[in-house]
Model the fold of this input.
Amino acid sequence: MNSFPPMKQFALLIFTLLLAHVSIVAAADKAAKITPRPNIIFLLADDMRADTIAALGNPNIQTPNLDRLVARGTSFTRAYIMGGLQGAVCVPSRAMMLSGRPLFRISEQLKDTTTWPMVLRAGGYETFGCGKWHNGPASYAASFPNGKSVFLGGMNNHFRVPVRDVMPDGKLTPPRTSELHSSELFANQAIEFLRAQKSGTNSFALYVAFTAPHDPRQAPKEYHDRYDAAKLPLPKNFLPKHPFNNGELTVRDEQLLPWPRTEMAVRRELADYYAIITHLDAQIGRVLEALRETGRAEETIVVFAADNGLAIGSHGLLGKQNVYEHSMRVPLIIGGPGLPAGRRTDAMCYSFDLFPTFCEWVGLATPKSVEGRSLAPMLKAGRDQHRDEILTAYRHFQRAVNDGRFKLIRYPHINKSQLFDLKNDPDELRDLSEDAASKPKLEELMTRLASLQKEFGDTLPLSTNEPAPMEIPLPPASAKGKKAKL
Ligand SMILES: [Ca+2]
Done:
């Protein structure tokens, strides 16, 4: 029952509509207003598959904080790394992302290389980095002279991670062992930095490179308790053994479980993987809460990504030393003032496209050395086409080209190809390379692969006169723990 007479009701309605209009206009105004020099927070995960975020379609994992970032940002569902020319894919992947350069034109130690934190620093930004840095101490100190708690690689243990600090002269302290879980330690450092920005007016760039969820997949017990290995579904492309010699079946990551992989062993790995990701998610939540408390969230762009994916039982593999989608695709979420909220794009891109994106946002010139292409246009409404094709590579064993629908993988050391229809077969289960009907596509992609190799400076021949055996004997026993270097 409404007690207002009709005229008053009408006036009230008009008034309410006006009020709504004013607040919509104000909100739109606010949304369109990208602060001229936004702060950047870059959160990087280590070895995290693109399909491990609940809001992006995984009902078996808990990632409430990343889910919130998905809701307020743009998710790139087909972001890739270009791969690696060595087993520790983390190293070239980070070098690409930090330098904006493709795999075949990087210095892994970033020698004589301009990184995007260096550009921001030279442009007046306060830069701060903590966590894993796999590209040499000199480039770290030049990127983050006030950085803290850097992990330069070596033996990993998330509960006792060896870290070093930058001293005022730019040198690093000897390693000390942290008593905190690595994700908590690095989040604490980030939070401490953010709290100091509360009263500041300087633009800042914060780089937090977590070592999670890289193995050993350790999380506090309460996080492991959230996952019941027996109830977790296996990946759709689970196999006990990779069907042929892909060149790298005995590399470090593949030694974490004996061959053949059993369903239960893979479920256990998955449970541990999800537990350390949920724990990482909680730490990301703490960092983003600290950002809110600074009162500067409205002028800060938050980027979440990973350095590479992982197999965890897919295709009989465990590691990232392959060019299947689960290993080369990475999560990429970008949220911030003036950027579309809750948007997903399947535009294909590389993580080294971020460097020019940052330059564009902050209004600084992109160095000539950068070959990435800015994603800024993708973050405006309506654009879903960025790269027409994606080249991925692993050592001299694997090359792949993906045209957005079809993907050719070539194994030159055994003269073998695989062809997948990613639209109808996203798990890369049905190899079409032997189908007569697929021959034109196979040939087309082989030509495109060769031309991409040329474009990116890759000289590897795509076939050999001395092929390796198609099958190789695999060690039955686990070497877990023996080679736990990152
Ligand atoms: Ca990694």
In short: DSSP finds eleven helices and 18 strands in the chain. The radius of gyration is 24 Å. Residues 263-294 form the longest helix (32 residues). The longest strand covers residues 39-45.
